[in-house]
Structures are given as C-alpha cells and as structure tokens.
C-alpha cells in the first residue's frame, strides 16, 4: 500500500455513544499493527495538522479489522455530542501521515434502529405494530422529530416486500388485513431517520413475525356462493334435460 493512498474513508455516528470511521484496505493488512488514527475536538474548524498537534495518547484510536477483511474500523467514544463539534483526524500508516480529514458528527448521523418491536391482532382484524425509540435523555436525539419506514413480506416470498412511510410522529403502525394474504407467515421490520440530522437512515430493526390465519368471512361466503349457485343451477338444468329427453316419447 502506497503512503497517501486511502480508499473510501468515511465516518458515521449514532450521535450518542460513538463515532466510527472506516476505510478500505488491501487484503492481508493488519489494521491494529499498521494504522493509527489521531483525532482532536475542534469547535472552530481549524485545519492545522502539525506533528505536535497529534501527540497525546488519549487522542489516538487503534483500528481493528472489520467483519469484512478488506476494511479497517476505528471507534471513537466522545464524552458528548453537540452541533458545533468537529473532529480533526490524521491517519498514519506505519508511522507515515497518509490522510487528513475533518468530520462534523452532526452531519454524518446514522441513528440506531428502533427497538422492542411487538405486533398483535386488533378487533377489526388488522395488525398493530409498535416499537420504541432507541434514544432517551440526555441523548441529543431524544425527542427530536423522526420519521419511520415499515417493511413487511411473506416469509415464504422474501422478495415481495411492502414498504410504508410514516411521515408523522408515531411509534405504531396498523397493517391492514386487506394488504395481507390469509394462511401465510409474515415478517416485519422498521427503520428511522431524524429530520434534523437526515444524512443516513438507520439499519433495519430486528424482525418480528406474525401469522395471518385463514378465517372464512361473510365476504368469502358471498364470493363462493355465487359461482357455486351457478354451477348447481347448470347441473340441475342438465339433469332435467336428460330426464326429460329420456322419458318423454318421441312424437313424429
């Protein structure tokens, strides 16, 4: 890897506990042995990267290899987050400065997914999905305007996904029975985006499952009654015709 050659360097934050920076590396790179990420808080967008500026041990993040072997990941855990805060970063590879970067956490928020999903059938036959926000005071995101997306699909047909946007403040959503097919298992998940910090949607939440029982309704009975009645009428007509032609003598 040539000094100064860094690919796909980016940072995201949950805006509560951590700021995570990651970058792409060639195969077989040992991130914790070959890289160091120096960082410093800055409220005035300074761009000085002198050697003495990045010299404090408590301002060094030792990266780790990500789940994908071709990425390094470094997690910074700030004491607080505020809108005016910027981090000045300097990435070193084997002691050589490679990359300088400024990141403002408020501009790269990727919120945590909603939690504690629950679903139950209600009296009208629909299914009520509820969840909880993943932030609570004193988090900066707690109580902030948030929008959600709900997606659900038949477990047996995972590519046929329905996605519903919720553009109002709510922590529940009613899945109508008319949008479902009876006798199938369904899977549902939720994600969120904070309108004041719209850079990224959260990951999709943990999934919950429910089963839409096959119950015969009055509407079903009506739908079945019409074709059955027609078939019966036709059958009786045919029987009467054959009986009539068999027992009535031919008249020349």
Architecture blueprint of SSEs:
Layout (H helix, E strand, L loop, with lengths): L6 E7 L5 E6 L6 H4 E8 L17 E2 L2 E2 L5 E6 L9 E8 L2 E8 L11 E7 L5 E6 L13 E9 L6 E6 L5 E4 L8 E11 L13 E5 L5 H30 L5
Antiparallel strand pairs: 1-2, 2-6, 3-4, 3-7, 5-6, 7-8, 9-10, 10-13, 11-12, 11-14, 14-15
List keywords for this structure.
mainly beta; 38% strand; single chain; 2 helices; Immunoglobulin-like
Describe the protein.
GO terms for molecular function: cytokine receptor activity. It is a single-pass type I membrane protein. With 252 residues, this protein is mainly β. The chain contains two helices and 15 strands. It folds into three domains: 101 residues, Immunoglobulins (Immunoglobulin-like, Sandwich), CATH 2.60.40; 98 residues, Immunoglobulin-like, CATH 2.60.40; 25 residues. It is 13% helix and 38% strand. It has a four-stranded antiparallel sheet with strand order 1-2-6-5, with no helix packed on it. A four-stranded antiparallel sheet has the order 4-3-7-8. Strand 5 and strand 6 form a beta hairpin. About 5% of the residues have low confidence.
